[in-house]
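Figure caption, in words: inputs first, then the predicted bound structure.
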Amino acid sequence: MRILVFILAFLSASAFSQQKEGVEVKRSRLLLLPASTVENSAAQQYGQLMRAAAQKNALNVDKQQVERLRNIARALIPHSKRFNKDAERWRWEVNLISSKTVNAFCMPGGKIAFFTGIVDQLRLTDDEVAVIMGHEIGHALLEHGRARMSEQVLKSVGITVAAAIFNLGQLSAELLAQAANLAVSLPYARKQETDSDLVGMELAARAGYDPRAAAAVWHKMSKLGQAAGKGQPPQFLSTHPSHEMRIKEIEANLPKVLPLYKKQ
Ligand SMILES: [Zn+2]
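Bound structure (zinc ion present):
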């Protein structure tokens, strides 16, 4: 059974994204769930969340701000296929939820949400929105959510059952919904964070936004975390753990993406 799982993981593993310029990152390896299953489940979760926000009159209230986010997304998205060809057929969405929560995410399949808390409390410039959005898109392109959902399903039903029902038609919608929720509410691993930082910087640079904003965002974020002290830290920090090396790695990779920005 272990061998079977190994083979499945190997078959679904993606090769290095081959690029002559820009950053070098790897897609996730444990991708037991088909991308379409993950994307459908994420789209359902996202739809539910947006309907709940609309019911509370908290969806896309500030039209100008929504337009700003969508313009930045329109500039970033055409470059995303460099990291994942499937992104070309994704049905991208960008919405703004009125909430003090300091958070933003991109679910598998390109479902992006920003909370007003992150935009207002960090007083984000366009460059900073671009690197945060690019970072979130990076998690989706590198299929960190898909890997996470696959892990959750394996944990829930056990590896034997998951392999036995590998066509996965038999997995309950409820189980997938649970896995999709966990996929955005658990912290990402350090390597996933760094890889997403790099993707975000490259997408931003290619779209004409200054990738140096990535370091600025993390300085602002950690200041906000410190200011919160023993209180509630920004949610973004709990799902995207900061680590000492993070800003250093961002800075070390700047020379790979700055030329792309300066070409504009
Ligand atoms: Zn992250």
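The chain is about 60% helix and 5% strand.
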